[in-house]
Amino acid sequence: RLGLIVMLAFIATRFRFFRKMASSRKLTTKQQTTAILFFGLFGIIGTYSGVTFQPETLTLQRITFSISDDEAIANFRVIGVMLAGLFGGYKVGLGAGLIAGIHRMLLGGFTAYACGIASILAGVFAAFYRKKNPRAIHQPVQIMILGALAETMQMGLIALLATPTSQALELVQLIGFPMIIANGIGCALFFLIIQSVAK
Predict the structure, then answer these.
(1) 159-166: which pairs have CB atoms within 8 A and are 24 or more residues apart?
(2) Is the pLDDT of residue 123 over 90?
(3) CA 172 to CA 108: how far, in whole Å?
(4) Which candidate, 83, 87, 94, places its Cα nearest to that of 31?
């Protein structure tokens, strides 16, 4: 799955709009729309590249087009949404978050709404941080921390909103830490590839 992130990052650098977006402080409406669609699709790919997880049986398996009510998804959806907010600002972060988040809600599972809401908030959170810290997109360590914080927020929402609560807490205990670390590293890795290839 880290290999898939590397591939997506490399493909992104081949698009002219992405290079302009990475170097521009303000995007045109057309650039914003393109970025929303790109990062929204990235988030969906991040969902489907994950695995479904059943807390009680500890069963892992590939995702189909829907998941059962007692399953959740371990994935890197938050990476695409975080990068959307960092590179594109509020509109792009919110737009990509809505695409990836609503798609996640439609897939089902007992964490569907918590994860969907977390995806939307992640894009807004990243855009807010970028506005307060304009140089954040040049700091891979900060990006890694932001990715980890976004995943931490998602785990918190799962614990608060998902039902049954006991199953939600068990899920967070089992996959929370690995997901936080993996998504933080994934955000930084994506950024470093873009930085090295798009120069």
Answers:
(1) 160/114, 161/113, 161/114, 161/117, 162/72, 162/110, 162/111, 162/113, 162/114, 163/110, 164/110
(2) yes
(3) 18
(4) 87
